[in-house]
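I am writing to request your help with a piece of structural work I have in hand. A protein sequence and the structure tokens that stand for its backbone fold form the material at issue. Please examine both parts with care and let me know of anything in them that strikes you as inconsistent. The record follows directly beneath this note.
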Amino acid sequence: MTGFNFRNGLMMAGALAVLAACNPDAEPSGSEIFAPAEAQSSAEVAAPMSVAQNVESIHEGMLVMDTHLDTPAYFHTPDYDFSVRQTFEQDGTHVDLPRMKEGGLDGGFWVIFTAQGPLDEASYAAARNQAMLRQMSIRELAAKYSDEVELAFTADDAERIAGEGKRVVYQSMENAYPLGTDISLMETFYIGGLRMIAPVHFRDSQFADSATDVSGDSYGGLSPLGEELVRKANELGMVLDGSHASDETVYDMIELSTTPIILSHTGVDGVYDHFRNIPDELLTAIAEDGGVIQINAYGGYLEALEPSAERQQAMADLEERFGGSYYDLDDATREEYMAAREEIDTQYPAPRSTFEKFMEHLLYALDLVGPDHVGMGADWDGGGGVDGMTDITFLPKVTAALLEAGYSEQDIEKFWSGNMLRLLRQAEEARTSELESPDVLN
């Protein structure tokens, strides 16, 4: 979508189009990332709560990865500098190089995100251009900070890059919408480094039904074009991501894919029954197939959050003023909408979930399917973050909580990176394509 500014649009996830459709009274939770410093508790403004020194050492000794980093949305914005330590309280961001070092985050999958738009050729072309520019920005980051970060193309690259003291940059595509109807475009993105792909986002795409599009299923799961996408991903050796997909779509992906699938940033229905969370029987099916769920930290999916009466009224006035769906607004009106929305978020901050609730989702999933099938995809810089874990500097706290819960260091290593690298390695081993990333791009 031409001109879409994701920095301003991070909150759209719960805006007029989707969460309102799921529940007209639901509060858009993505806006929590814009909560001003004064809305945070004094404990949150202070440095992260320390953990025992031995836990810090254990955490630092592990390869710590996250499967859903939306940070590339900031790369071409004027106020963001990857090399400078910033704070959530000051600008709402979660990830930069100094904080990666502080929190022991070695890297992960950096997201090429495109919002869902109309299913027509002009919109496909605009989305394709946006996605290519987003991939280019990720590659530019790796080139600019080549002494500190490096692009990763294979599962084996992670250990090597981290061993050299650099941060690991894999690439994923959240929403395959930019492919239009040309599945061969996956080859172009693969050459540029794409290794994970999700067919759908908040609304039904040309490929699949979305978990949060309640206007009525378009296909009853994957579309015929979506089935082609799954086969092409298997051919290329990409990991398939079922986050945001409807239950029927995920079942179709499991049945059709020759390798296990991942949910790169998802919660569990067993803790909070929400369209974006996954029921026990489906999570069990994913695990039995060898797949993995990466638990997110997006407050609106962790629990029901009740906004203040003032915020509810302000949001109702906003919807009345702009009407319709966020996705159907033109570029200029979107900018106007987001400016008005940010004013509301500043004046009447959205309620936030907690670290304890995040851990409840995490421990529930671990109890249900075991440590071979659970990891972390917190949705950093895409709406994730909770009180008690406002950015990546708090990651040692997760390690501490898992140790306290009785999980072994071996289990926790699987959680942080072992499981997702296993899936990537399985995808590589099953690939049938002879297409390679040219050395000039590596």
